[in-house]
Structure formats: C-alpha cells, structure tokens
Write a structure and sequence with these properties.
Length: 172
C-alpha cells in the first residue's frame, strides 16, 4: 500500500510521535498544525486519509471535518482525541468520521486504523479515476458517471456509518 496521509495536530511532540510510528508504512505523510492549514493542503493535492486532532486553534478538527464534507471531500477521516473527550468523539463519528483514537495512542492500533483508512481512501480515488477514464473515453455519459460517483460516496458513507455505529456502542 502506498498513499498520502495528512496528520493534523497542533502539538509538535504528538505530531512527531505519530509520524515516527507511521514511518513503518510505505506512505507519504503530510502534516498541518490546524484545520485551516489542513484545508489548504487538501485543496491543493490529493489526500487518501486524514488523521486529525479535535482541539486545535484557528479551526478545530470538527470544523475541518464539517468543511470537508460540505465541500464534498469524502476522504476517510480519523479523529484523535484526548482521553475522556467522548462528546466530541461521538459528534465526529456522527459527522462521518471513520474512526477515532484516544490520546495517548497505542502504536499498533494507530497503524491498524490508519492502514484501514488509507486502504479505503486509495480504493476510492482509484475508483474515481476509473470512472473519469470511462467518462473521458465516452464509454459512459455524464449522467451515468455522476450516478456512479454518487453511489460510490453513499457506499463509503455507509461504511463509515457502520463503523461509527460500532464505535458509538464502544464509546458508550
């Protein structure tokens, strides 16, 4: 697997710990110190998954997630929250975050969750490219392409919702 992960974390030490842990994966890791910076990165290049803290200055993780979804970016989004911040974690899951991790995080669990998010993101972008190729080659019409894109997004949201339901049960 190779992909691009965006880590959004305002605490430099935590960000470094995350990046160090994820060096085991064959991926490119980009970092942002807050939601505003993350939004600029997402708008400028393809991202396969996002791991974001919730509580940050300028634009917090929940606002970032809301803005991304409003702009139709369906990138898999994993929330990193301080232990005990269950209210915001549940809110993020309701907003279609894919999963959550508590701080302090377990390295093996971080690798598992991020790998799964990246796998979904990579497959989604690959599917988008295949649909776009069919559209460009005039093998499908624009209406069919839009419907396929829409169905793909709905499937991804369903996948997120199922995981989010399981997480909400776990959170309490």
């Amino acid at each position: 697997m190779s992909g691009i992960l965006l880590v959004v974390e305002d605490d430099a030490d935590v960000c470094d710990a995350i990046v160090d842990t994820l060096q085991a994966l064959p991926i490119k890791i980009l970092t942002a110190a807050d939601g505003q910076q993350a939004l600029q990165i997402v708008r400028s290049q393809p991202i396969d998954a996002i791991l974001s803290d919730i509580n940050m200055p300028h634009m917090n993780g929940l606002d970032l997630l809301a803005r991304l979804r409003m702009l139709s970016f369906e990138t898999p989004f994993v929330v990193l929250s301080a232990y005990g911040d269950r209210h915001n974690t549940v809110k993020a899951l309701q907003m279609s975050a894919m999963d959550f991790l508590d701080k302090p995080f377990d390295g093996d669990h971080l690798l598992t969750v991020v790998s799964r998010a990246l796998e979904i993101g990579i497959k989604s972008r690959e599917s988008d490219r295949n649909i776009q190729t069919l559209l460009n080659d005039k093998k499908i019409n624009p209406e069919e392409a839009n419907r396929i894109f829409q169905l793909q997004r709905e499937l991804m949201v369903m996948r997120f919702d199922r995981k989010s339901y399981e997480m909400k049960k776990k959170v309490g």
